[in-house]
Amino acid sequence: MREKLHTIPVNEAFGHDCECPVCYMRKELETKAIDFTMGPSYMEDDVRGETSKLGFCEKHVELLYKHQNRLGLALILKSHMDKTIKDIEKLAAGGISLQPSSLFKKKKNVSGIVSYIDELEKSCYICEMIDRTFERYIDTIFYLYRHEDEFRKKFKASKGFCTRHYGLLYKQAPEHLSGGQLTDFINELNSLYLDNIKRVRDDLDWFINKFDYRYANEPWKNSRDALPRVINKTNSIYEAK
């Protein structure tokens, strides 16, 4: 089965000490996608064709820039700009098309340029690379939960999930599980999320208290890194320790 192809990274993620193993998996995919894009692959015609067409979102073009392969990024972005210029020149030659105005609405520009740019703004080569594999990782979580006792133990022993990925697992569970196994999974998922987000919330509360002079001589307990862990829980932003 295709899920078995991804049992190793999924098992590794759930064995990792982090606030959301799903965030950890996605971060690993992102790192590999950046490295792949900035490696020798950027000289390959099929890769260059995709990067030229899709471009990159703001987040990932910043990460590409930080990779330090400035020549590689320059070549990739020049190809993307060349294609964008060619496409827009062709669309611009078609002129402007406006929908008739109604009583309360202004005329709407329905030019192909607007649609083209809207689609371009939503596309990203790195995001698409990540999403293709990430979906199979989610499938693998449920596959392992169905078939492997050892994974179910790892699942129960995890530190829960960020809000986004808690919702994702909750939403997809009925597509993969049924009967008592689905009930068990949802109950465990709810407990993992709520127990652990409360734990991190309490750590944050103590972190705040430490800025009060009355608590200056009290121990930090487990609150020194509370803020990045909270950001992981609330905004799905994973940063390696």
What does this structure look like?
- There is one protein chain.
- This protein is mainly α and 241 residues long.
- Helices cover 69% and strands 2% of the residues.
- The protein contains 11 helices and 2 strands, in the order αααααββαααααα.
- The protein has a two-stranded antiparallel sheet with strand order 1-2.
- Strand 1 (98-99) and strand 2 (108-109) form a beta hairpin.
- Helix 2 packs antiparallel against helix 7 (125-147), helix 3 packs across helix 5 (70-92) and helix 9 (163-176) packs antiparallel against helix 10 (179-209).
- The longest helix is centred in the last third of the chain and has 31 residues, at 179-209.
- The protein is globular and about 65 Å long.
- The two termini are 34 Å apart.
Radius of gyration: 23 Å
Number of helices: 11
**pLDDT average, as an integer?**
91
Biggest sheet: strands side by side, in what order? 1-2
Largest β sheet strand count, sense and barrel closure:
2 strands, antiparallel
Percent strand equals under 5%
Per the principal axes of the C-alpha atoms, what is the gross shape? Answer: globular
- The number of distinct β-strands equals 2
Low-confidence stretches: none
What distance separates the N and C termini? 34 Å
Indicate the structural class. Answer: mainly alpha
Describe the protein's topology.
Elements: H1 7-14, H2 21-38, H3 45-54, H4 58-66, H5 70-92, E1 98-99, E2 108-109, H6 112-122, H7 125-147, H8 149-157, H9 163-176, H10 179-209, H11 226-235
Antiparallel strand pairs: 1-2
Helix pairs in contact: 1-2, 2-7, 3-5, 7-8, 9-10, 10-11
